[in-house]
Amino acid sequence: MTQARTTPLSISMHAADNVAIIANDGGLPAGTVLPSGLRLVEQVPQAHKVALVDIAQGEAVRRYNVVIGYARQAIAAGSWVHERLLQMPEARSLVGLPIATVQAPDLPPLEGYTFEGYRNADGTVGTRNILAITTTVQCVAGVLDFAVRRIKAELLPRYPQVDDVVGLEHSYGCGVAIDAVGAEIPQRTLRNISHNPNFGGEVMVVSLGCEKLQPERLLPPGSFPITDERAPELDVVCLQDEAHVGFKSMVASIMTRAETHLVRLNQRRRETVPASALVVGVQCGGSDAFSGVTANPAVGFCTDLLVRAGATVMFSEVTEVRDGIDQLTSRASTPEVAQAMIDEMAWYDAYLDKGKVDRSANTTPGNKKGGLSNIVEKAMGSIIKSGTAPITGVLSPGQRLAERGIQRGLVYAATPASDFICGTLQLAAGMNLHVFTTGRGTPYGLAQVPVIKVATRSDLARRWHDLMDVNAGRIADGEASIEDIGWEMFHLMLEVASGRKKTWAEEWQLHNALVLFNPAPVT
Q: CA angle, corner 311, sides to 119 and 411, nearest 5?
């Protein structure tokens, strides 16, 4: 296991930067002399910034060669540069942005890589074989949870080819303005999650009966990915049906219907498919200043590998890319793709303004404790996950890749930055594998898709050794390169997608609830 570094080390991201971060576990005390000869005039915690030169009041503070703030007072070289010393810059205007100006690097195709997956009738591929039971309203969640526990204990052992049974529970469905502007977002999200590739085309719904979101509204015939005779029937268990006499009767109905789906799913077998069948969602949460130094750059390198292999990669989190929108529009494959990103940013700007919330609300206390002073600095580290490939498509919240005719490549899937809403929306888009980076640490996991967790720091990887799947902190320790970790993740993805390896989140069954993004008013 990696040992803590003792030699003083600071990391800067660009030659023009006037701050660097301290890499040592526990930070460094005042008086420490860095290899550059700079002496710290005060203690600087790990991952926090140190001034490399004297910075005058009002002068720009640069990291990633980007202005992350302006000094509220004079800052002496060797001082700790934290959020209280910085005035955040204004948000980048959405007017006059560079549009499709960056020529993508000419990277050769990556051929010959495969995994063992489950082919679906609509052309998608699952990495797991799961029975998912959709709910139309939160009212049925308790009954379904009881039924799922019984299904797992009594029925699932009879069907060894089925990996799991999950209830798609949520807090939507009634007590909402079902026809309000914005209500289509949670509805299409839940609809599209029901068709996720990991569910094998089996659709089962548990309804209460009196809710606003009726099953036929949620899953009308035209919503099924397969429109010919192979399209599944809408299979609904309605708890208010007169046939149900008591709680046990409801549970028995759910179990009986579930077994029909388990029989079909159990007939499925993994087969060799190209790596291009992967649909990978990348996300970060509990971020720190190392996120943009180790884990996210390694994910970005891996993103380029996946795109070269013909796979689809989604990156998201509107407020965590908003301050780098010029970097994204310049990488768009076409002006139309650039405009679609601008439209998503503008929609979210209006959404935040309506709630009287500005973008500074994004950075959490944990982010700040991990050295991130504000959302500008955080955004620079977040965007790196997207690699260098051209951005070829854009999804609005809750949309499915197929709805926009997107088959492969790097895609911007617009979502809020909340970990659980982002993960939920990427599931709706068609994600079959998830990569999640963290610096502060989070036990985040999803029942519907494997989640590969990547630690930004070796200290976190040591302490959470049975929660983190990859230690990207080895990059800062000088034990591995960004490319080394990127390739490691790529190969791990193929192993996890094939079912040959479980992630720690799967091992411990760490499954967070789905959270639907609902910008419409409640009633």
A: 120
Answer whether residue 6 shows pLDDT above 90. no
CA 360, 363, 364, 368 dihedral sign is negative
Residue 198 near residue 432, CB atoms below 8 Å? yes
Region 136-149: what's the mean pLDDT? 98
DSSP secondary structure string, 242-268?
A: TT--SHHHHHHHHHHHHHHHHHHHTT-
Residues, the chain: 523
Q: Is the separation of the CB atoms in 72 and 86 below 8 Å?
A: yes
Distance, in Å, from the CA atom of 461 to the CA atom of 294, rounded to the nearest integer, reads 13
pTM for the model stands at: 0.95
Query: Helix, strand, or coil here: 326?
Result: helix
Query: Are residues 262 and 132 in contact, defined by beta-carbon separation less than 8 angstroms?
Result: no
Residue 229 structure tokens: 């005779």
Closest CA to 110 of 357, 327, 310: 310
3-state SS, residue 451: strand
**Alpha-helical segments (H) within 130-246:** 141-150, 184-194, 215-218
Long-range contacts of 240-244, Cβ-Cβ distance < 8 Å, separation of 24 or more: 240/208, 240/209, 240/210, 241/209
Q: Rounded to whole angstroms, what are the CA distances from 341 to 321, 349, 426?
A: 10, 12, 16
Residue 371 CA to residue 20 CA, distance in Å, equals 11
Do 150 and 253 form a contact (C-beta atoms < 8 A)?
no
Phi, then psi, of 44 in degrees rounded to 5: -125, 120
Which sign does the torsion angle of CA 43, 47, 52, 56 carry? negative
Interaxial angle between packed helices 482-497 and 295-308, expressed in degrees from 0 to 180 and rounded to the nearest 10: 60
The angle formed by the CA atoms of residues 117, 122 and 128, to the nearest 5 degrees, is 30
CB 47 within 8 A of CB 59: no
Instruction: Collapse the DSSP code of 487 into the 3-class scheme (helix H, G, I; strand E, B; otherwise coil) and give the result.
Output: helix
**Angle, CA 189 vertex, CA 186 and CA 195 arms, to 5°:** 150
pLDDT band of 2, cuts 50, 70, 90: very low
pLDDT digits (tens, 9 = 90+) for 218-244: 999 878 887 666 666 789 999 999 999
Question: CA-to-CA distance for 208 and 211, rounded, in angstroms?
Answer: 7
The 10s digit of each residue's pLDDT in 192-225 is 999 999 999 999 999 999 999 999 999 998 788 8
Residue 63 is which amino acid?
R
CB-CB contact of 394 with 315 (8 Å): no
CA–CA distance, 116 with 126 (Å, rounded to integer): 9
CA gap 55, 49 in Å, rounded:
13
Which token pair is 468?
């983190």
